[in-house]
Amino acid sequence: MNEWKQAYRLAIFEMKASMRSFLLILVFYIAMSLIFMQSLDVHLEDEFNFFDLLFLLIFFMFPVWMKNKEFQMQKIDGDLWASPSIIMLQQLPVSKDIIVKSRFIIHSFCSFPFQLVLLIAMPIMSENFREAMTPVAYTAFVLIWLAFSIAIGFIMAASEAGGNYKLKAIVLSFIYLLIGFAVIYFLRPDDGFLQLTMMMAAEWSLLSIVLAVVVSIAGWKYWQADMRKMIKKADYL
Amino acid sequence: MPEWIEIKDVSKKIDGFQLGPVSLSIEPGTITALVGNNGSGKSTMLKMIMNLANPDSGEIRVLGKPVDGKDESWKRHVTFQPQNAVGWNAYTGEDLKRLIAPLYPKWDEAVFERMISLFDIPLNKRFGKLSPGVQQKLSLSLALPRSTDILILDEPTASLDIPSKNLFMDCLVEWMEQEDRAVILTTHETEDIRKLADYLFLMQGGKPLGHFEKDILAAGYRRFWLHEMPAGPLPGELSRTENQLVSDNPDATERYLSEHGSPVIDTKALELEEIISLLLK
């Protein structure tokens, strides 16, 4: 508990240093996203299939881009890529566990409020969505997407530990990312991910809630352990 | 006396550059200067002490604790000031003090305020907006007040103007006198070494050349002016010109000259800079 308290202090410190730009970007992204969300009804009537991929991009990537560029992962020197804060904190009497926790708190600040706005906007902005969801189903739906946010989105928080990457490795990872997007696009269910999760939440509400909670806890713990391992392995030279 | 920092057979390969194996012990109450050519591995050594990089082999202990162990409490006793402060740009000097001070139980506010006033540092400007010299002054002003047992400085005076350099050296000497403390610093400035260092650890191309007590090293090299240069090589002879001879064993050289009836016109100890240049040649 004491570690979380210290991590919170460090996280708040960083957030304060970029609060004004963070709030501006947050408002801008929320406005953009809400304009985009107006087409949710069109998507639910099966007339805008690309909505699904755009939604995934907004849901997972906007929180990453919301961070001030001074704190984002960047090239530090030579082959070293990392978030500068990771290097700064390691030179201070702050344990690796606290560093990891502070990064997760910051990522939570950047992702959860924004993602909740998106999820809350859905029933407000779409009649089709409202009709398809009971209150319990909607709760399950929100938890499913928050579980995705942790299990997938927190890869970005963990990756801030960085490491030593040659140009070849960076190019390869971009190629893999593009292949990943292509695979997601071609293998996605006919109605899209969003409708699939709506269906899961409506048909198997309780099971979805339990699974979402389990995946959230597992993702939260796994990515923290992964980040600790990456910090230990990296050479911050 | 127990060692505060113990480096045992540490080696690391980085992109074809082989550092070490290096062994070095740092005792309390001493200032050790790591001296070497550019790219000789000095900064990498310091970062390995701080566990910012992993050695391929060997072990580093700080205050008896392995730096790569689970117990990271040793960090409370160490201040590290790198050549370039990474991650500080978004913060003002005031922010940085508020971040750093609570992490060190012996933070000395009076020292901080004195250094800020001596160096005339604006605390309300973002670190990234300060000139390299002012950035360095602020980093130093945030280093000494931590009052840790061990202070590790990577080229602390590289961007400082001459008056600031002298001010900092005075502050550091005063800081050392307060308690039993140990300092390791890397530097290319002979003035820093001459004024501050007790020991010199010389490195070249990643290999250690030796760990020397400064005064013994300085007394171990002399230049002789001779009427007539003897034909054969002399004991301790390092180099010779027409009537000058440099020796790293002055006693043996002098004895030889006196035994062979070669009068010495004059002798003079070599400057530390010359000795280091000779060793790093």
From TrEMBL, chain A:
Keyword Membrane annotated: yes
Q: Which domain of life is it from?
A: Bacteria
Record field: transmembrane: 21-38, 50-66, 104-124, 136-157, 169-187, 199-223
What keywords are assigned to this protein? Membrane, Transmembrane, Transmembrane helix
What is this protein called in UniProt? Uncharacterized protein
* Source organism of the structure: Planococcus salinus
Automatic annotation (TrEMBL), chain B:
Pfam families with a match to the protein in the record: ABC_tran (PF00005)
Q: Where is the ABC transporter domain?
A: 5-230
Annotated keywords:
ATP-binding, Nucleotide-binding, Transport
A single MF term (Gene Ontology) = ATP binding
Q: Which residues form a coiled coil?
A: none
Taxonomically, which superkingdom? Bacteria
Classification via SUPFAM superfamilies: P-loop containing nucleoside triphosphate hydrolases
Q: Which SMART domains match?
A: AAA
* Protein name per its UniProtKB record: ABC transporter ATP-binding protein
- What is the scientific name of the source organism? Planococcus salinus
